[in-house]
Amino acid sequence: MHLKANISIFRKDERGTVAILWGTALVAFLGFFAITLDVGRLSSTHSELQSFADSVALAAAGELDGQPDAITRATGAAANLISDSQTFANGSSTLSGSADYTLTFHSALPASDLTPLGADITTNPREAKFAQVVLTQKSVTVSLASALDKILGGGGITPVNISAEAVAGYTKAACDISPLMFCLPPDWETTLTVGDQILLRSGGNNTAWGAGNFGFIDLDSFGDLQSGACANEGGNKLACLIAAQENITQCVLTNGLNTEPGQKVGITNAAFNVRFDIYRSTLNGEKNKPLYAPAPNVIKGIQKKGGGSCIQGSEEGTPDTTALGRDTCMAAGTCGGNNRFGDGTWDRTGYINRNHDLADGVADGIGSDAHLPALSGPDTVFAGTRYGMYLREIAYGNTNPHSAPNANSILDPTLAETGRPICSNQMSTNPARRIVNAAGIDCTQNPVSGRTTGVPVTKFVSLFLTEPVGDDGASPPSFDIHGEIVGFPDVAGVGSGGNGFGGIFRDVVQLYR
Prior knowledge:
By secondary structure, this protein is an alpha+beta fold. About 25% of the residues lie in helices and about 20% in strands. The protein has helices spanning about 1-10, 15-60, 70-80, 145-150, 190, 235-245, 265-275, 330, 335-340, 350-355, 385-400; strands at about 85, 95, 100-105, 130-135, 140, 160, 165-175, 180-185, 195-200, 215, 250-255, 260, 300-305, 315, 435-440, 460-465, 470, 480-485, 505-510. The longest helix has about 45 residues, at about 15-60.
């Protein structure tokens, strides 16, 4: 009887139930706590590794400027400039050096981020635009979770391997540039230098371009132009973008421009030639607008046929002046790149004898440039070039005024040309008015035919227009642009912003994956 009563009492006794519940909950709590700590360590390690991968990719991509040593510099920057640390992974806590990652370069990225990389791997420094970094795996021991697993009868949890990957790319943002593109010669890095002349000639609407052929950047690349000098120009947008002397464009990224087919001879001849005080076609009535002011030196060796101040129709050569000469190899037909790329040798003496014959007051056909101020400072790099002669003539006109109506003329006032504008009542004070910044592209690596999209710019080139732009007389005409290289405005040094050649260039390095 007593036994049954005791059993009944024990069965109804609830004391100690809380201890059982607490014991069960404690095991679960310790499990969650262990997992939380280990997951936190895994997450922290991945964040540290991803930060390192991002930094390495950005450092490498920042060197991919298309130069011959781009990949070498990118590899060095990744290995030597970036260091970091990790906290919980096994092994060294230091993250630094090429042993911690694999670096691969790509010429392009797939359209979708879901598509694996690999099809566009390149070792060509001129093609490499993207740097891919894959980190060497690091193992993290999940000690607490492994211990709990063993308590519950398991065999423990093996260390977890963690890695990270990043892809960064390089391009330039180019602002205030002319919508002009041309094909570089295959060996441009070693052959093009300051003073060399380039003959740019259109290759037509649909034919493939070759070295020296030029076309235009699709105007859509410049946006709607709701502000700035060319806002609301309508059908004259192209002419304005080429002809205007003020800030003309917004920024465009240069890793994939679109070409604009068509030669547009009438528009572009006029647009380039306002710099020479010549107003024709769509710019016939714009001669007195400051926006289209000619350069401070417009010596060109031509004048209006029959007399008059404005060359808007027929023209003829002047009797006693001449334009800056072309490279002598062009006349001989021996220049490189189908006679499109000169070597900087021109008849400087002949130019001086023609235009500066009266410097000593004696018309004997023997000229002298002794009266022209010498180049100084950074301009000394242009000694012997056509641009250097142009600068010296401007300096002479600015410091040696003549009697009216030829005040401040560059050449002797008795000659057919004074060197100053006579058609327009405006004149730019910036010598760089006769310089255009053109986008040079590698047409071998990036074939262009008609309208082509996504064409990367290899190098911007600053070209001094040595003579008015004219067509070649063919049918249909193919007009020629003779320009002398004065620099590369997207790199430091000659032709940089300090030389006043216009254009604003900014490196853009960003993560893509």
